[in-house]
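Progress against Task 2.4 (sequence-to-structure conversion) is shown through the following example record, which the project officer requested during the mid-term review.
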Amino acid sequence: MDKARLKVVKDKFLVSANILRKLFRSSSYTRGVRETGYSLNGNALTNTFVNARACRDNPDRYNTQVRKPQTKAVFSFAIDFSGSMASNYTDNTLGRISAIESVLSALYGVTHVAESVGIQSKVAFIEFDNKFGGCGDRDLGASTRCVIKDFNQKPWTDDYCLTLCKNLSPNGEDDLAEYARQAIEMVAYENAEHKVAFFMTDGINVHSHNYYASLVEIAKAKGVKLIGISFNTPLHKAMPNGISVKSSMELATALIKELEKRGIGRPSTFSSIIAKIQD
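Structure tokens generated for the chain above:
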């Protein structure tokens, strides 16, 4: 990976940034978390004390507030960090490159555009204490979430992304169900109107498929849309809201399309944006 190839990705996305701003922009929203009563501070505490002394019901207890989301949308992206991600393949946009470099290049472009329109993101790769199960042993130990971009961090610079591509060395085995769980946890407690959890792998990992249905329900209970991505590998029917991509550009456009499908953008303008990105 070098700056010239990275610039190809960035230019394809930033050229459409103004259109994407229009896509994701909406009028002031009113949806939020409903809360009954007030916190015990300021006037609320005084009212509680006064009403208690007068043996009256405290009306504050019956008032309902709407706490508006601080952010229109957030998404998480959990990356398979197994050894196969270090293998090279031919990316349609970037040429001969490793899978991890291709994925990071796509996220580099998407996070720049997403942040420019107020969509915050968190990216992490997931690895395990016991990197090599050996002899069919699936006990990989506890998973570790290694965050390489947090919600409060700006999009990556060219140099930072290139450093990641150069220094990250995926190894070990994979556990797709754990990637999905970590992706959900990364966004579950964020105060946002739309929450999307992506997890991706370049493997099949059949033993994880038994857990997908329950993980989707867990995500739904937390207001999160869970989406599984198969990168340059066949898509298994059990993958939650499954997407199959084969290159950095396919991955990037799929992410934007899924964010749009959550109701963040206007479908009537989306096709023109994708066309500009893919030109």
